[in-house]
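Something for you to look into today, if you have time. What I am after is a single protein written out in full by you. I want to see for myself how the chain folds. Could you add the entry underneath, on a fresh line?
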Amino acid sequence: MFRLLLASLLIALASPSWAVQPDEILDDPVLESRARDISAGLRCLVCRNESIDESNAELARDMRLLVRERLVEGDSDPEVLSFIVDRYGEYVLLRPTTDGANIILWVAAPVLFVIAMLSAGLYLRRRETAPEPSSGGLSDDEQKRLKELLKD
């Protein structure tokens, strides 16, 4: 029972809600809500697939503070995102944009999947209509050679 309580306490302490430190939280609840919305879509560059809100990395903390700083200075949400992307690159977005060269990445997987399914369908159709291989067996010369090989 004690181990179960200890395990649940450790899981609760490791949860993402503890990543944002109390000294980072803004006094204005509207700005804090905007900051949380923005930082939920930003990738921690240390942890890779966690948002900066979920990450305990020092870089994630710096990015959270930077988002809040820009909001306090009066930037709009798109301006804050633009500033962060200009500074850290588009990789920082958990959901990359679908314009420009990224459209190739968004379209490539479904297109390749459709091509693979069509190729598999054509292969199976040709295989059904292919003539059966002849079951004539081995010729006399081949049978003699096989017997010689098996004797050795």
Remarks:
- The mean pLDDT is 83.
- Residues 45 and 88 are 9 Å apart (CA to CA).
- The helical segments are 2-13, 29-40, 58-72, 77-88, 102-129, 140-151.
- Residues 98-128 form one domain.
